[in-house]
Automatic annotation (TrEMBL):
<comment type="similarity">
    <text>Belongs to the prokaryotic molybdopterin-containing oxidoreductase family.</text>
</comment>
<keyword id="KW-0479">Metal-binding</keyword>
<dbReference type="Pfam" id="PF01568">
    <property type="entry name" value="Molydop_binding"/>
</dbReference>
<feature type="region of interest" description="Disordered">
    <location>
        <begin position="617"/>
        <end position="642"/>
    </location>
</feature>
<dbReference type="GO" id="GO:0030151">
    <property type="term" value="F:molybdenum ion binding"/>
</dbReference>
<feature type="compositionally biased region" description="Basic and acidic residues">
    <location>
        <begin position="617"/>
        <end position="634"/>
    </location>
</feature>
<feature type="domain" description="Molybdopterin dinucleotide-binding">
    <location>
        <begin position="721"/>
        <end position="838"/>
    </location>
</feature>
<keyword id="KW-0408">Iron</keyword>
<dbReference type="GO" id="GO:0030313">
    <property type="term" value="C:cell envelope"/>
</dbReference>
<feature type="domain" description="Molybdopterin oxidoreductase">
    <location>
        <begin position="433"/>
        <end position="471"/>
    </location>
</feature>
<protein>
    <submittedName>
        <fullName>Molybdopterin-dependent oxidoreductase</fullName>
    </submittedName>
</protein>
<feature type="domain" description="Molybdopterin oxidoreductase">
    <location>
        <begin position="2"/>
        <end position="403"/>
    </location>
</feature>
<dbReference type="InterPro" id="IPR006657">
    <property type="entry name" value="MoPterin_dinucl-bd_dom"/>
</dbReference>
<dbReference type="Pfam" id="PF00384">
    <property type="entry name" value="Molybdopterin"/>
</dbReference>
<keyword id="KW-0560">Oxidoreductase</keyword>
<dbReference type="GO" id="GO:0009061">
    <property type="term" value="P:anaerobic respiration"/>
</dbReference>
<dbReference type="GO" id="GO:0016491">
    <property type="term" value="F:oxidoreductase activity"/>
</dbReference>
Length: 874
């Protein structure tokens, strides 16, 4: 980021929520970079930006689409980069229809099943398969198998990287003039995203919008780069994936991917959130973004790889990644004769995300639950349903530093006060086990920039507190001891696990470096591997996560390196270790032109050295080292060998950045603006109000949706609310509300409102406000501030309400949970909740207590005409 000429921070309050990373924004600014902050609120980030752009929460695609339209209309795109490295020249099929043709939806929409058939989205001349992780659903088609995945699994989709291309080559027009080439389709799609429309939809004045367009385009091209940074302000929407897609389209048009000071940074809200997705806490992935198999009959390892791996690009090596993972899991028990224990892996029967798990609890299907570093009783959308679900369990294990709300809801939760739950009627057996803090254990953090950094234990955990590694290892050990000698086939996968980590100290703490060594992997002689390029598909290598292979190259913990910056160059390759291969910028082949020369000396990163016949430069090249820029692969080549010398995007099966996505997303090949699930405004762009394939969970009386736009009753909830984080507290509060100093700095839950809204609704500064949705009612202290400025949207004044989401009733600093107000309507790709844009009413005074609180919510539902069908249309 320090090398950027312009930085756009949107969907994040980076200065407060990611302050360590924000130092590099300030470094770039000191070097002359322009900083733009796009956010409904004026925050500490805004105060340090050159330009603050207030906009209506939930309208970022309209805003970004307007910039895309500006780039195309004014020919500000980086044409040579675009033609060489993107799918802009590729021609689409004749039967593809865009939102402009179909009143806001794409061709292939199945309204009954709330899904798209993407056959018409394909390229002319070939078929592009789904992204890795989704192709397993097409197992029968691709492998000729005879069994069908369950209907539930057929609706489950997730991308894990690249996409496979069928036989033949897609038709291309490098003049970019063919009416059905991606470039022309893109231009038509965004033609109506004008400055005038951006002003009407987002509330951003046209002059301010044009200033942003000029700053971004002036600071992009051969000699300059612009970076984007986002956080959960972009992801937590029913179209969250398409927010990031819109930024990807823009950055590809401008040639800002794979280059110093460019790219799109997903800012992570905790030290190792990146690590928890790499070695996943996600239900649908195996380590290194290998997809979890679906529940097919008679699917062996070869059939899975055939159905999943792409023909071209690095996902073509999936078998080597997966076999090495299975060897790490099962060791000598995994052999060619038993398919390397592939049958031991669990199988998906659909989406098993957090919110489906809650519904399974309510339905009595899910009987037990582990909460490790999570506090859903206040931290998840529609917190009430989280608690009701946990009240229907047989057992619940909570591991945390403090007695968080998810450990005590059975005796002091809101439903006890309202009478909806009675402690004596709750059958859930709750186990609270104190957890060690990161200072009390060894391990690694993987941060925003994919950088692994090792931390060493500073002190022993107090009392009975133990690390998560200790808990997991010893729980597994005890289960294996209980199952020892079992002849039950179902127990064999657990018994065959390699579960032999060395332990130290009086508590028998597992050696964290031994786990890192297993993750890194070994060859057949037990030597630590140095690169994922060394992984084999014949069982001779083991690797717990292929993208981390090399973190112990030479048997040395590379993540523990701390060479000072003044002793190395600006890439700082000896500070920690970045996956993959210690590469600091992904797709950096795109930092050079098609001939392998840097686009400019100022932005040089890697380049082709014709004398040595290899790629060289400041960073580790993201390309085969000896593959020349003019390399043309043989027609029968597969995997990485099938990539040509200008196929810079090596994880994509065609080696190109995708402006248009023919497969891999469930909700459309191009980002399109839809209103949030609950919105007080109609969609000005299309007849289609909401994302037609957003994920709605089965109807529940405590998860009612609200009318939106022009629907009767929508103005019962006339204000837009958004949740956010503060510097002084952390996520759901478990790490901060029990700290006296932090509780003193932010002692109570509050809401931010403008002076104009305060006057309109009779709210007094530091007084109380009651905030109501169709799901719940909360109270908050009132903070009257100019930081949340009113906007003019569609000709009327809009007020927005800011709600930090850290609070709950436990700890030193207490208050209602903002997430009580939220619905469970999810992004269909990631199953993430829409917390960043929803509609509420706000009124002065404290909320009612007990059953009276339920009556108030019911009264609002009645006024708005809400029933189980409201807001559920495709």
């Amino acid at each position: 980021m320090q090398n950027a000429d312009c930085i756009v921070i949107e969907g994040s309050n980076m200065a407060e929520c990611h302050p360590v990373g924000f130092q590099w924004v300030m470094e770039a600014k000191a070097r002359g970079a322009k900083v733009i902050h796009v956010d409904p609120r004026f925050t500490r980030t805004s105060a340090l930006a050159d330009v603050h752009v207030p906009l209506r929460a939930g309208t970022d695609i309209a805003f970004l689409g307007g910039i895309i339209n500006y780039v195309l209309r004014h020919e500000k795109y980086f044409r040579e980069y675009l033609v060489a490295y993107s799918n802009a020249p590729v021609i689409l099929r004749e039967d593809f229809r865009d939102t402009e043709d179909l009143a806001g939806v794409f061709s292939g929409l199945d309204t009954d099943n709330r899904s798209y058939d993407n056959a018409s989205w394909q390229y002319e001349g070939t078929e592009v398969q789904a992204a890795s992780g989704e192709r397993d659903q097409e197992y029968e088609v691709r492998t000729g198998g005879g069994s069908s995945v369950t209907e539930a699994a057929r609706g489950e989709a997730h991308g894990a990287g690249g996409a496979a291309i069928g036989e033949g080559e897609p038709e291309r027009d490098e003049t970019l003039t063919h009416p059905r080439c991606v470039f022309q389709v893109l231009g038509r799609h965004y033609a109506r995203y004008t400055p005038e429309l951006v002003e009407q939809v987002c509330g951003v004045p046209q002059d301010l919008f044009r200033q942003v367009c000029e700053l971004i385009t002036e600071n992009s091209g051969r000699d300059r780069t612009t970076a984007f940074a986002y956080a959960v302000g972009w992801t937590q929407h029913t179209v969250g994936v398409q927010y990031i897609r819109a930024a990807s389209v823009l950055q590809t048009l401008l040639g800002n991917i794979g280059r110093p000071g460019g790219g799109i940074l997903a800012l992570r809200g905790h030290a190792s959130i990146q690590g928890s997705t790499d070695i996943p806490t996600l239900f649908n992935l195996l380590p290194g973004y290998i997809p979890m198999p679906h529940a097919h009959e008679n699917e062996d390892l070869d059939a899975f790889v055939e159905g999943e791996a792409s023909r071209k690009g690095y996902w073509g090596n999936m078998r080597a990644y997966l076999v090495s993972l299975l060897k790490a899991y099962f060791g000598d028990a995994a052999s060619a004769g038993n398919d390397y224990c592939f049958d031991y892996l669990p199988r998906l029967t659909g989406s098993h995300s957090t919110y489906e798990t809650t519904m399974a609890q309510l339905d009595g299907v899910c009987k037990g639950y582990f909460l490790i570093g999570e506090n859903p009783a206040v931290g998840n959308a529609n917190s009430k349903l989280m608690r009701l679900g946990m009240a229907n369990l047989d057992w619940l294990v909570v591991r945390d530093f403090s007695l968080i709300e998810s450990a005590t809801w059975w005796k002091d939760g809101p439903e006890i006060e309202t009478g909806e739950l009675r402690t004596e009627d709750i059958g859930t057996e709750v186990f609270f086990l104190p957890a060690a803090a990161h200072t009390e254990k060894d391990g690694s953090f993987t941060n925003t920039q994919r950088l692994l950094q090792w931390h060493h234990k500073a002190v022993e955990p107090p009392g009975e507190a133990r690390s998560d590694l200790w808990f997991t290892y010893h729980l597994g050990r005890l289960v294996r001891e209980r199952l020892a000698g079992s002849g039950d086939e179902m127990d064999q996968p657990v018994l065959d696990l390699t579960w032999d980590y060395p332990t130290t100290g009086r508590h028998a703490e597992p050696d964290a470096e031994a786990v890192l060594a297993e993750i890194n992997g070994y060859d057949a002689e037990g030597t630590a591997l140095s690169s994922y390029e060394e992984l084999k598909d014949d069982g001779s290598t083991s690797c717990g996560c292929w993208i981390y292979c090399g973190v112990r190259a030479g048997g040395v913990n590379q993540a523990a390196r701390r060479k000072p910056g003044e002793e190395q160059d600006w890439v700082a390759a000896e500070w920690g270790w970045a996956w993959p291969a210690n590469r600091r910028i992904l797709y950096n082949r795109a930092s050079a032109d098609p001939q392998g020369r840097p686009w400019s000396e100022r932005k040089a990163l890697v380049w082709w050295d014709p004398e040595k016949g290899e790629w060289t430069g400041h960073d580790v090249p993201d390309f085969k080292k000896d593959k020349s820029p003019d390399h043309v692969p043989p027609e029968d080549a597969t995997g990485p060998e099938a990539l040509g010398g200008t196929d810079a995007f090596v994880m994509q099966a065609d080696g190109k950045a995708w402006l248009y996505v023919p497969s891999g997303l469930t909700d459309g090949p191009l980002p399109a603006h839809y209103e949030p699930q609950d919105s007080p405004f109609p969609n000005l762009l299309y007849d289609q109000q909401r994302n037609p394939v957003r994920q709605l969970l089965p109807p529940h009386p405590d998860n009612r949706y609200q009318p939106s736009g022009d629907e009767p009753g929508a103005q019962v909830f006339p204000y837009v609310a958004t949740t956010y984080r503060l510097t002084e507290h952390h996520t759901a509060g478990g790490m901060s509300r029990w700290q006296p100093y932090l509780a003193e700095l932010q002692p109570e839950f509050f809401c931010e409102v403008s002076p104009e809204l305060a006057a309109e609704r009779g709210l007094e500064h530091t007084g109380w406000a009651t905030i109501v949705s169709a799901r719940g009612v909360i109270e908050a202290r009132v903070l009257v501030t100019d930081r949340v400025a009113p906007l003019t949207v569609q000709g009327r004044r809009l007020h927005q309400v800011g709600l930090p989401y850290h609070w709950g009733p436990n700890g030193y600093s207490t208050g209602d949970a903002a997430n009580e107000l939220l619905h469970m309507s999810l992004d269909p790709n990631t199953h993430i909740q829409e917390t960043k844009a929803f509609a509420v009413d706000i009124r002065p005074g404290r909320r009612p207590r007990g059953p009276a609180a339920l009556e108030l919510v019911r009264a609002y539902r009645t006024r708005a005409g809400i029933d189980e069908h409201t807001g559920t249309e495709p």
